[in-house]
UniProtKB/TrEMBL annotation:
GO terms for cellular component: cytosol. GO terms for biological process: dTDP biosynthetic process; dTTP biosynthetic process; dUDP biosynthetic process. Its EC number is 2.7.4.9. NCBIfam families: PRK07933.1 (NF005923). Residues 5-158 form the Thymidylate kinase-like domain. It catalyses: dTMP + ATP = dTDP + ADP. This is Thymidylate kinase. Belongs to the thymidylate kinase family. Keywords: ATP-binding, Kinase, Nucleotide biosynthesis, Nucleotide-binding, Transferase. InterPro entries: P-loop_NTPase, Thymidylate_kin-like_dom, Thymidylate_kin_CS, Thymidylate_kinase. GO terms for molecular function: ATP binding; dTMP kinase activity. Phosphorylation of dTMP to form dTDP in both de novo and salvage pathways of dTTP synthesis.
C-alpha cells in the first residue's frame, strides 16, 4: 500500500508519519518511507526550493511552473514507490500529489477545480506517478499550524520558512482546499485526523489499525 499524509506546513505530518512507522514496525509490517519535496536528492525539488526563497526570478509567480517542478520530483521515484508497494511494503509518504493539488488550488481560487484536475492529469496520467491507496489528512487550523512553523524556525535556523509558509492567506486557503479534497474522497479513500492536541500515539495506533484492516 501507498499511504500519503497530507496537510499544511506545521500540521504535524512528519511527527505522525514517524509514529505510524514505529507502530507498524512493532507489528512486524514491512515499511518504507519517503518525504516530498526531496530537497536533498532531486534537482527539480532544489529548483523549487530556490524559487520559494525568491532566487529564481519570477518563477515563484507561476502556479503551473512550480507545480510542474514538484511533480517532476515525484516522477523521479514514482516507479520505485510502486515497486515497493507491489513487493508488500507499506509506503508512508510525507506529502504527495494532493499537496500539489491543494496548494495550486489555493493559489488559483478562481479556477481551483481546473487546476486540481490539471495536477491529477499531469502526475497520475502524463508522468505515471502512482495513486495512493489511502490519504491521511493531518488537519489543523491554519493559525495553529503557523505558530508551530514559526516555533520550528526559531529553534532550527535550517528550517527557515519559505514564501508559501509565510503567506498566511495562502495557508488558510490551502487548509480549505485540503478539506475539500478529503470531503470529495479525491482519487482514493481519505481519513481525516485532528492534530490540534498532542495525543500522537493514539492517532498513530488508529491509523495503523486502519492500514492493517485494509491489507487483509
Amino acid at each position: 500500500m501507498i499511504i500519503a499524509f497530507e496537510g499544511v506546513d506545521g500540521a504535524g505530518k512528519n511527527t505522525l508519519v514517524s509514529a505510524v512507522e514505529q507502530e507498524l514496525i512493532a507489528r512486524e509490517v514491512a515499511v518504507a518511507r519517503a518525504g516530498f519535496p526531496r530537497y536533498e536528492e532531486s534537482v527539480h525539488a532544489q529548483l523549487a526550493s530556490a524559487a520559494l526563497h525568491r532566487n529564481m526570478g519570477d518563477l515563484i509567480d507561476s502556479t503551473y511552473g512550480m507545480a510542474t517542478l514538484f511533480a517532476l520530483d515525484r516522477a523521479e521515484v514514482g516507479e520505485q514507490l510502486q515497486e515497493l508497494s507491489d513487493d508488500g511494503y507499506v509506503v508512508l509518504l510525507d506529502r504527495f500529489t494532493a499537496s500539489n493539488a491543494a496548494y495550486s488550488a489555493a493559489r488559483e481560487p478562481d479556477t481551483s477545480e481546473q487546476v486540481i484536475q490539471w495536477v491529477a492529469d499531469l502526475e497520475f496520467d502524463s508522468l505515471g506517478i502512482p495513486v495512493p491507496d489511502l490519504h491521511i489528512l493531518v488537519d489543523v487550523a491554519a493559525d495553529v499550524a503557523a505558530e508551530r512553523a514559526e516555533q520550528r524556525e526559531a529553534e532550527d535556523a535550517s528550517r527557515a520558512r519559505d514564501a508559501y509558509e509565510t503567506d498566511n492567506g495562502l495557508q488558510q486557503r490551502t487548509v480549505v482546499a485540503y478539506r475539500q479534497l478529503a470531503h470529495a474522497q479525491w482519487y482514493s479513500p481519505w481519513e481525516v485526523v485532528d492534530s490540534t492536541d498532542d495525543n500522537v500515539s493514539a492517532r498513530a495506533e488508529a491509523i495503523a489499525n486502519l492500514i492493517t484492516d485494509m491489507r487483509r
